[in-house]
Amino acid sequence: MSAIGLPLIIEFGGGAELLFDGKKRHEVDLPGEEWTLKRLLSWLRDNLLTERPELFMQGDTVRPGILVLVNDADWELLGEGDYKLCPRDKVLFISTLHGG
């Protein structure tokens, strides 16, 4: 029996893509079935983040100024890091941090 994965679409905007090799869209298939947003953040840090992790994460969550949307809904309405990801969810990270 083959392992089941979790297919997701992960997108970055507002400059956050610059921390992820300049790529705005990533289609990933995560191993296993049980994934929360908190676990996804750790996976992103360890697997896709290419520079300046302090601009994306603070501790085990996103830093203030990063909006997180799951299927166009604010993650705060979904339980933030405790939200259980579903196959083909679209997770969007938008930076509101801009230099002046």
From TrEMBL:
Posttranslational modification: C-terminal thiocarboxylation occurs in 2 steps, it is first acyl-adenylated (-COAMP) via the hesA/moeB/thiF part of the MOCS3/UBA4 homolog, then thiocarboxylated (-COSH) via the rhodanese domain of the MOCS3/UBA4 homolog.
Listed name of the protein: Ubiquitin-related modifier 1 homolog
GO biological process, one term: tRNA wobble uridine modification
Cross-referenced CDD domains: Ubl_Urm1
One Pfam family recorded for the sequence: Urm1
Gene expressing this chain: 105624161
Superkingdom of the organism of origin: Eukaryota
Covalent link location (Glycyl lysine isopeptide (Gly-Lys) (interchain with K-? in acceptor proteins)): 100
Any one of the GO CC terms: cytosol
Function: Acts as a sulfur carrier required for 2-thiolation of mcm(5)S(2)U at tRNA wobble positions of cytosolic tRNA(Lys), tRNA(Glu) and tRNA(Gln). Serves as sulfur donor in tRNA 2-thiolation reaction by being thiocarboxylated (-COSH) at its C-terminus by the MOCS3/UBA4 homolog. The sulfur is then transferred to tRNA to form 2-thiolation of mcm(5)S(2)U. Also acts as a ubiquitin-like protein (UBL) that is covalently conjugated via an isopeptide bond to lysine residues of target proteins.
SUPFAM superfamilies, alphabetized: MoaD/ThiS
Main location: cytoplasm
Location of the protein in the cell: Cytoplasm
PANTHER family: RURM1 PROTEIN (PTHR14986)
Pathway field: tRNA modification; 5-methoxycarbonylmethyl-2-thiouridine-tRNA biosynthesis
Membership in a protein family: Belongs to the URM1 family.
Modified-residue entries (1-thioglycine), positions: 100
Keywords: Cytoplasm, Isopeptide bond, tRNA processing, Ubl conjugation pathway
